[in-house]
Amino acid sequence: MMYSPPYIFFHRQKGYYWKEGTDPTLQNLSTLNDAPDDLLQSVAINVSQPDALMTWLKTNNAAVISDLTVFVDATDAAPSPQRWCVLFDQLQREATNIQNLSVYWDSEGPIHTGLGKSVVFIRGLAQLKVKRSLEIGGFYAMHWPRYLEEKMALKPVDKNIFPGSPWVGMLKKYQRGTESRNPWVNTEDGWWDVPRRMDFTDLLKSLHS
Predict the structure, then answer these.
(1) Cβ distance 194 to 117 under 8 Å?
(2) Phi and psi based region of residue 21 (left: phi greater than 0; alpha: psi -120 to 50; beta: remaining)
(3) Cβ-contact 50, 14 below 8 angstroms
(4) What is the C-alpha to C-alpha distance for residues 130 and 154, in angstroms, rounded to an integer?
(5) What is the phi/psi pair of residue 204, to 5°?
(6) Within 13 Å of residue 121, how many CA atoms lie on the same side as its CB?
């Protein structure tokens, strides 16, 4: 029987689940470190919850990761740039076989803007060692592609950006005002660069600061 290539999703705060069609023998292992070579050469990871992946890495060798998809949520409960950077720091040390990296920054209107303007996130992401391809998508600041290309020595490809695509206008609108965000120099995010949960008093203070 032919099984799908090993693919694991980390989209819950705790735990993970396998892509449908993955070999059940692999799914039943307590750690992929015990997998025989004929069953596992590499694994693809899709993550929106960095803490869940870090828990998995306590018992699994990061060097088995060949394809990494990072989905950056835009919700109140989404992980902070700092949580992502803890994961990126570990992966840049231990994930020595990442061939392909794909990153998507979500944004849900003026309130849930996601982390597409976070210099902390992009500086952490740029630490990753990727050998073959870098794909980006969604909503991100103006200088991010050039910064990633310089730091990772791979040209980012956004498949949604092409003549006539509606994404071109949406991305330009999102990038308006991000010209001053400089990941080469800036090391901290500004107040409005990342989503913040605040009550009405906090909002008034921020408007008068």
Answers:
(1) yes
(2) left
(3) no
(4) 8
(5) -60, -40
(6) 27
Name the domain count of the chain. Answer: 1
Q: For residue 1, is it within any domain? A: no
Across 2-6, 48-52, 148-152, 179-183, least confident range: 2-6
Is pLDDT of 206 > 50? Answer: no
- Residue 101 to residue 45: CA distance in whole angstroms: 10
Q: Which of 160, 167, 155 is nearest to 130 (CA)?
A: 155
pTM to 2 decimal places: 0.90
Whole-number Å distance between alpha carbons of 136 and 155:
10
Token readout for 66 is 């060949």
Q: What is the pLDDT of the chain when averaged over all its residues?
A: 91
Domain membership flag for residue 99: yes
Q: Which domain holds residue 76?
A: 7-208
